[in-house]
Amino acid sequence: MAIRDWPEDTRPREKLLKQGAATLTDAELIAVFLRTGMVGKSAVDLGRELIECFGGLGGLCRASQAAACAAPGVGKAKYALLQAVMEMARRTLAEDMLAGDALTSPTAVRDYLRLILRGKEYEVFCCVFLDAQNRVIAVEELFRGTLTQTSVYPREIMGL
Q: Where are the domains of the chain?
């Protein structure tokens, strides 16, 4: 059955607008993102298939262009949209972390770097420069390596 034939309060978009995004299942969130289904499948059904295929929302969001575009209901335009949404989320979280004393614990540093470095297809060595209140001044990528390793030269870090 098409989503437009569902009761209005159970349709993903209407549910999101009325109750908030947090009330939606992962499949419903993907359905809102996809906007339409395919012949014989609603957008929610496609969302469930994508979750199963990629192992969850994170897997879909981290999928390569080739893998994502090979999935039913996701083409280059949807992949580009997904990447834009992910980058907006990363930037929003980075802004929030930079606004206050975000890096006051090892866990906060780990989460911040995970946000910044996630999705890189190579190893990096970077430095995080903080002010006296543990706010980020800058993050600089000093060395870039391969998929599995990077070479770090202490002399270059110390400026000798």
A: 1-99, 101-160
